[in-house]
Amino acid sequence: MTAQLGHHASPDEAIAARSNMLLGVKLGILSEAMLFGALFAAYFVVRADSPGWPPISGFERPELILPGLNSLLLVSSSVTMQLAVRAVRSGEGSRMRRWLGLTMLLGGIFIAVQGYEFSNNGFGLDSGIFGSTFYILTGFHGAHVLVGLGLMTIVMNRARRGLVSREHDTALEATSYYWHFVDVVWLFLFSTLYVL
Amino acid sequence: MSAMARRSILPGPGLTRAVLWAAIGFAIGAGALAFGLKADEGQIFGLGYLFALFGFLLGIGAFRFWLTWAAGREIDVHEEHAAHGRAGDWRRYFRFTTDHKVIGIQYLVTAFLLFFTAGIAAMFMRFELAQPGIATSKDLYNMIMSTHGAMMITVALISIIGGLGNYLVPLMVGARDMAFPKANALSYWMLPLAVLLVAINPLLGGFDSGWTAYPPLSQQANLGQQAYLMAFVTVGISSILSAINFLVTVFRMRAPGMSLLRIPIFVWALTVTATLALIATSVVAAAFTMLLFDRLLGTSFFRATRGGDVILFQHLFWFYSHPAVYIMGLPGLGAILEVVPVFARKPLFAYPLAVLSFISIGVLSFMVWAHHMFVSGMAEFFHIPIMFTTELISIPTGIVFLSALGTIWMGRIHFKVPMLWVFGFVWAFLIGGITGVFLADVPTDITLSDTYFVVAHFHYTIIGGTIYGLFAGTYYWFPKITGKMYSERLGRLHFWWFSIAFNATFLPMFWLGIEGMRRRVADYPTALGTVNLIVSIAAVNIALSVAVFAFNMVRSWRRGAPAGANPWNAQTLEWQTASPPPIDNFDVIPTVTATPYQYGSLGSTAGEGRAAP
């Protein structure tokens, strides 16, 4: 992100640093995708093994309304994120901050709703394999949402200080990749854990 | 000014502060649970470790630039420059230094220290196994055996790619550093605490699951086991970070003119290795995390009594750990192929095919994992396809082998120490490869599973592939890294002593395995006593020969003859700069005009500014 060896970056170096960083983020996301892939694989294996789902009667699968609402929130937040990216590309700093702020708000509501849902589910992490798979998948995803919110807070802070602009948008661009990834993972989660 | 004021209150970023903050972190993490909530010792220890790791990294200064950046403050250019390290300052090796050459040496020295420690553990094992019956104690044996395995796996995973790779890849592709120097230093500094955790696990009760950590054994309460699991996940995250760094460096930072088929073969091998590490490691991290959750948070992923699946762990584990065999092996093969043309004075035979083979080994390695599970009770229909893919992988491996042999064929061979290790590799890896076929075949595997046949096989592949490659590479690049020449006589002594002792140790183990000696067990039938005694005596000789190596390295580094920039007349870029290279690697970034293996043809040059032979 900054020039190597502490020199001030020449334009060429800055372009190279930007594309290096974005490639690095994409590769990191690939590794993250494998992490969720492993968790999903575990989920499908135990679910295929078990006679019914939930395997033990007495637990209810969570209802669809709140997580459905949450899906809408997260998908919209991807849209607002992309609008923020477009705003910075056309050099409109204050519009970018508004869209980014809205994205953070949507992500924040998502986490709050999920927290509410967690506390009202009739099962916990230790409720057999059903609870284990449900909470590790949604929990890991929730942690990623929190990381995304943290990254956006940093970008927002830098934007307020005038450090994010058309020429310096690497951090925002990288954060947007990550945020879209988190969004896509949720869609898989929603369709397998809740709907299927 | 404010930075100066801050520095006067606390010790500056460095090891002292790192240790201090790690201790404080552990106290906070463990204390919060110990006093605040009802928690068992595993949970207390787990949160303590997490905080300690974070405190250590904070203290060493791993995050200071990123925190400054995140806060939107100006990064102190002088401080950043200082973090890159000054030539000739030994303290940079104990600091958060971003120079890839420093990080390479940090990795290499760490790996060799681990190698020696794990070797001492092996000596203990051979002491116990020298005669039938129990000389020490079964529990102690299990503990030491597991520690030996865990440490040697780490050595095989990090020594070549982390050590030689970090040092050499930027030099070999003509870059001034890795793509992300700070992330590079971070991946190294995640290791010390994890390695320490593995080393001290006997104090925490040890673990006896071996490095594979199969549940349900690994679920049973024991802090030593938990220490191993946490350390493994830490090493995994570090290797993912480092893999990203390697890939971006190789794809984006090559010198002008270095097209894909002009990349040195060692760099190609590391590129495939990094890809495997990037894709596979998070799967094992997930598996070990689930295992830790089973232990600490009451989940039941691998608890059959509560709907979990024990075999699932083995699938997830080997989905990483079989590619990991190639994460260990490919860098060794790459180092071997890099050394061969230089000492045969011939172009690398079938270079494009060798590249293709590395890539196909990488792809196939994801389709063979279940051959570790033929006797585990996994689904029956899975046996034959996995047997087939496993045997398929011997084709690209064979091509890599042929590439080495084809280069040697009709070459003008210089029998220098690195080349001796190449010949040692050819012999050892051949045996390792051929015996692998017996273990890939389902019927023979069912008989040979969990016997010393397996032990002999994987020592022949990992020592034959990785450690022979590591020694070949270490001798070959020693003059570049230190600027000094090693002692050829001591090197030869090391090679012959090691090779004879190594073969005398592991060749009889094939026979022991066929005779039914079980691996991972402290005792065996009385009839096998004589052979085991011979094996133990031979094993001591491996250790002694490695002591010669250590002596040679330390003495030559201190007072070896100056080596000059290019003692081997090699054509890859790292030899076209001073030994050791200046802090920015090259005065002028070279332009590449040909493949780096134009030996034997007149007037060929790999890079501009190459010294005349």
Q: How would you describe this structure to a colleague?
A:
The complex is a heterodimer of chains A (196) and B (613). Chain A is an all-alpha fold. Chain A has a single domain (4-195), classed as Four Helix Bundle (Hemerythrin (Met), subunit A), CATH 1.20.120. Helix content of chain A is 77%, strand content 0%. Chain A has helices at 11-49, 65-89, 93-120, 128-160, 170-195. The longest helix of chain A is centred in the first third of the chain and has 39 residues, at 11-49. The relative contact order of chain A is 0.15. Residues 1-7 of chain A have low confidence and may be disordered. Chain B is mainly α and 613 residues long. Chain B has two domains: 10-75, no CATH class; 101-576, Cytochrome c oxidase-like, subunit I domain (Cytochrome C Oxidase, Chain A), CATH 1.20.210.10. The longest helix of chain B is centred in the first third of the chain and has 36 residues, at 138-173. Chain B starts with a helix and ends in a 54-residue tail after the last helix. The model of chain B is unreliable at 1-8 and 602-613 (pLDDT under 50). Classes of the chains: A mainly alpha (196), B mainly alpha (613). At the A-B interface, α1 and α4 of A face α4, α5, α10, α11 and α12 of B.
